[in-house]
């Protein structure tokens, strides 16, 4: 196996274990999952931290999400684009939910990793904003600001405790998009204030 293939295989074997055990995962567990001798790991990575760091960088690589979001641009309807985007974002966040605390344990002082995370978030936000750009004239805020709000709505629905509880854990894709585009007012039946405004 070529060095890059071995590296990719070790990262692939590490990620599920990192999600399950956090930084307590052992190199023995990783070697068993990868089907290699434990010493093989240290022929590719200098230490366990380097392997875990590489696995985290892979898990938080924004490219797959950015590419998937870009593929939604062909959909004509703004709501349809955003519903599909919310589904993709929610799925990605759920997959990495158990990894969010790992960087604080492992990479608290790693400026390169921190910059990688921030740049990844910006790229995803930009991709979501791109989905809204054709409808810019219909939006009260810029596509970039609307994208930031959408990402926040998805985050509070995925991460328990993000908002101090699980208030938004039952928000589905449709409601998330509706809250962003329509706000929180129930439109039917008409509220008294709405009735008065139509007179």
Structural class: mainly alpha
> Could you name the ranges where pLDDT drops below 50 across 5 or more consecutive residues?
194-199
CATH architecture of the largest domain: Orthogonal Bundle
Radius of gyration: 21 Å
Number of helices: 11
Distance between the termini: 75 Å
Instruction: Provide the β-strand percentage band.
Output: under 5%
Overall pLDDT:
87
Number of domains: 2
- The CATH topology of the largest domain is given as Tetracycline Repressor, domain 2
What share of the residues lie within helices? 55-70%
Q: What are the secondary-structure elements, in order, as H or E?
A: HHHHHHHHHHH
What can be said about the biggest beta sheet?
A: none
Structure explained in plain terms:
The chain has 199 residues and is mainly α. The protein folds into 2 domains: 3-58, Arc Repressor Mutant, subunit A, CATH 1.10.10; 61-192, Tetracycline Repressor, domain 2 (Orthogonal Bundle). The protein is built from 11 helices and no strands. The longest helix has 22 residues, at 111-132. It is elongated and about 65 Å long.
Briefly say what this structure is.
Helix content is 66%, strand content 0%. It is mostly helical and 199 residues long. Helix 2 packs across helix 3.
